[in-house]
Amino acid sequence: MTHAHSAVGAHARITTIAEDLLWLLLDDFAGNTTVDSITLHRVLAGAVLAELRSHDGAVPPRDPLLATVVAGHRRIVLDRAVDDLATGVRGPLLDRLCADHRVDRRTRRSFRFIPRTTWPTSDPAGKAELRHSLHSAVLDAHTPDTRTLALIGLLHTAGALPYQFPRWSRNTIDRRGRQICLDHPDFADIIAAVRHAVCRARADDYTVRYGF
Q: How far apart are alpha carbons 160 and 169 in whole angstroms?
């Protein structure tokens, strides 16, 4: 399995699947997320679970964020784990992307008083390299490694895989992403748990908004 590395400092840090996923879900120039918040939080939670699986259940993993997750969830049940993890992952991941100079944190005020923060890419070459692994699997039909497979599955579930291939039709990329997930079901249960969690959250949001 290959790993992405941060480019900062003499001792490069191995990045997590969740960090790479969030980076891919941030617009390169505008710096806003390309999916809604309900989807974002839950696919990031799914990425944390995928990372834990890639460690073969080692407790605790070297990564402190993963170690915290393991400490708080001695018995991880996928059906609820995505919901449990969804609220506390995004902030620490954004901090890491900023610390590694993969994105810039920019805050401006809308209507003179409402702060709005965006995270445009500050390392386009690194992001292009990350996307290259996706291109190899989706466009060139190369067998994806475990990390790339997780990214493809979660991006596909979020409806964001076509965003990584702007010159290709959405239907083509969605179809290829779906086929890769079928051919390599390593994370099928995690992806299903993410999808179900998104549906539950949307239903709850609808109930709150409209009282049904």
A: 13
pLDDT for 88 equals: 84
The two structure tokens encoding residue 139: 């466009």
Q: What is the pLDDT of residues 56-91, one digit of tens each?
A: 756 556 777 777 776 665 556 676 889 888 888 999
pLDDT > 60? residue 199: yes
Tokens of 17: 């699947």
Sequence spans of domains, the chain: 17-210
Copy the structure tokens of residue 210. 């409209």
CA–CA separation, 91 vs 111, rounded Å?
A: 25
Q: How far is it between the farthest Cα atoms of the chain?
A: 56
Q: What is the CATH T-level fold of the domain 17-210, as seen in this structure? A: yeast vps74-n-term truncation variant fold (1.10.3630)
**Exposure class string for 67-95: b at 16+ Cβ within 10 A, else e:** eebbeeeeebeeeebbbebbebbbeebbe
Report whether 197 contacts 82 (CB < 8 A).
Answer: yes
pLDDT tens column, 83-99: 888 888 999 999 999 99
The dihedrals phi and psi of 174, each to the nearest 5 degrees, come to -60, -40
Instruction: Please state the pTM of the whole predicted model.
Output: 0.89
